[in-house]
Amino acid sequence: MALARDRCICLRKLDYSETSQILLLFAREHGLLRVIAKGAHRRTKAGASKFDGGIDLLDVGDAVFTFDPGKELNLLTEWGLREGHLELRRSLRAMYLAQYAAELIALLFEEHDAHPALFDRLAQSLPELATPRAEETFLAFELDLLREGGYLPGLSSCGECGRPAGEQESFFSPARGGVVCRNCEGAVPDRMSVDARLLRLMQGMLRLPRDGNGSSIPQRLPRLTRHQTDPINRLLADHIEHTLGRRLRLSKYVLSDADNAPVAPARVELRSATS
Ligand SMILES: [Zn+2]
Questions:
Q1: Is residue 2 classed as helix, strand or coil in its secondary structure?
Q2: CA 229 to each of CA 136, 201, 212, 235: distance values in angstroms, whole numbers, following the listed order
Q3: Which residues contact 31 (CB under 8 A, 6 or more apart)?
Q4: pTM of the model
Q5: 20 to 30 A from 12, CA-CA: which of 59, 105, 112, 202?
Q6: Angstrom distance (rounded) from CA 184 to CA 180
Q7: Which positions ≥6 away from 182 have C-beta within 8 Å?
Q8: What residues flank ion ligand 1 with Cβ within 5 A?
Q9: 175 CA to centre of ligand 1 in angstroms
Q10: Quick one: DSSP state of residue 94?
Q11: Strand boundaries in 176-233, DSSP class E
């Protein structure tokens, strides 16, 4: 079996036996990839393990692995850590946002379906989540992720009559997959009110020019607070849950006050992105 190499971000991990880990990796050129790292926790006589003592959630590394798309689990043979995100791990808010981003990628994309531009956006966004720009960074990434996956809701015009949205009071309907205007809101049963300013904010973020790996985006983002991003993240979570027919595990941590939030489980279960 030929070996493949790729830059990867660890989206989920599960300790498997005393010494091994099963990982869901987001590989830049290979997409989502499930691997087993045998002996990840085993130390050699010199004190090192071939996987630097184990791979953690959101670690970025250069991986070598067997790649058989027909196999449910490929074998990780090497891992060179490139970025351990120590700053991110010091902030509970940053970790919730980062793990939520990881959950969304795992849910919205198929295995072995490469999205290099989205990989670059995630790699670029993760360190920003540990800064005061966390809220706008996460929201911009979330919108890009939905657009890349084809899950972006209709935000520019009323889904019923086509009238441009954002000029007056608008409503959002997960069942309609987007916004509806005041005249049409009676036609959709599951509508929720959405502030026109927040709607224009999302429209503006989606219009920001992207170049290459999106490196110009952070400088151009407006500064946002949770007062602004919480309702938008709620709306997008409702939209995703309705579209996929699945509950999101981590949205409740992202949408609640960190002080009152239940502690997120350290171990994230592996789950098929397609089931
Ligand atoms: Zn309408």
A1: coil
A2: 8, 10, 26, 10
A3: 109, 110, 111, 112, 113, 114, 115
A4: 0.89
A5: 202
A6: 6
A7: 168, 169, 170, 171
A8: 158, 160-161, 163, 181, 184
A9: 15
A10: H
A11: 178-181, 192-194
CA of 173 relative to ligand 1 center, distance in Å: 12
Give residue 271's identity as a one-letter amino acid code: R
φ/ψ of 109, rounded to 5, equals: -120, 155
Phi and psi of 224, rounded to 5°? -125, 150
Tens-digit pLDDT profile for residues 117-159: 999 999 999 999 999 999 999 999 999 999 999 999 999 999 9
Q: In angstroms, what is the span from residue 248 Cα to ligand 1's centroid?
A: 29
CA of 185 to the centre of ligand 1 (A): 7
* Ligand 1 centroid – CA 255 distance (Å): 29
User: Which residues make Cβ contacts (< 8 Å) with residue 263, sequence separation at least 6?
Assistant: none
Cα-to-centroid distance, 186 and ligand 1 (Å) = 10
